[in-house]
Amino acid sequence: MNEKLWGGRFSQKTDELVEKFNASIDVDKRLYESDIEGSIAHLKMMAKESIITQMEAKILVEGLLKVKEKIENNEIIFSASLEDIHMHVEDELGKVAGDIARKLHTGRSRNDQIALDIRIYLKKETGTIMDLLVEFQKSLVRLAQKYSDVIMPGYTHLQRAQPVLFSHHMLAYYEMFKRDIQRFEDCFKRMDVMPLGAAALAGTTYPLNREYTREILSFAKVSDNSIDSVSDRDFIMEFISHAAICMIHFSRLSEELILWSSSEFSFITISDSFTTGSSIMPQKKNPDVAELVRGKTGRVVGNLVAILTVMKSLPLAYNKDMQEDKEPLFDTVDTLKICTDIYSRMLEHIEVHPKRMYEACKQGFLNATDLADYLVSKGMPFRHAHAVAGRAVAFALNQGKELNDLSLDEFKELSDLILPDVYDFIAIDKTIARRISYGGTGFDNVKQAVAKAAGELGL
Question: Does residue 6 register a pLDDT over 60?
């Protein structure tokens, strides 16, 4: 079976460079398991519908299992002359089962075959990715539990804004990645559609029982339109889109861990096991894992642009351009999986420095809003209170002080409403305790939020 499976119409040998250019085997060989799984289901269905005999199906199924074993034992040499994984599997099946292997392709095309293979593959990988993201969420929640009452500066515009709980900050990422999982769950519904039986684009004359094939392969439904079945790559675009958003979340976390581990911040220490050194500067401890994750985000975003560009102007149905869908997909799957896995491990070994975080809250007027709230509690309209607090900040800056350092007389010059209880009101711990609105950083709120997240994860 070394001749081209499509070669009957051609009178000239394919140019060697064209063979290399046309082949996808270097990329799609990882689909061998999905390809064989789909072929076995197809054979069982054809035997059930008497398109082939039960004995023929038995011989071919046994042969495909032997081919799978040979691939897994690295006993097969992949060649550009056979183009793709489908032709390699069929060729090897011929060596194992003989000429009967030529019946394998009855009632199908490589167009619906590859559509099926990718969906089988991506369903499994999406499930794995969602499991990895749950494990990562557990790492976030465990970190929040470990440092539940640690106070740190919250930032807007990368400027110190208001005190927040470190655990509250970690739960912000928990919520981000919860949405990522929800997006993958929703995307899974649209990849869980069985396209086999669409053939090249028009369906087939054979009495295929597509519903039976669907049951064997555990798909949720059968595709409704044969043209759409072979030309649809929406599920790939959607998956990579969700992966890109997920990687952006990892990148944002990476940026913070990189900053927090710097000497300028010194909020955290990342374990030596997840950092590297310098070839010239002995003192260096570099957050390379976080930096690489931040960098790999660009790859996944690039993969999204690549698949969108491939698909943007393709007429129906299948076009060879669509062979380019697998490299960005596979790279995205691999990148997201390793980034998620390594982050789950790294977070377990991060040391937080509560004293350093707390001291940072004492500088930068993080309690200025609370001074305004204090004046509101005394009856002053908020806009007036905001202005008074702003003047207090300006005065303190001029004196080289923080708000807590101002004397009562200095406060009185700003407003007669200010009384000695102001110092208790603007104390860092008290500013946290008063953040009682649902979803805020108050101690009780965050304690409940951590418990809720732990319950959702079964911790």
Answer: no
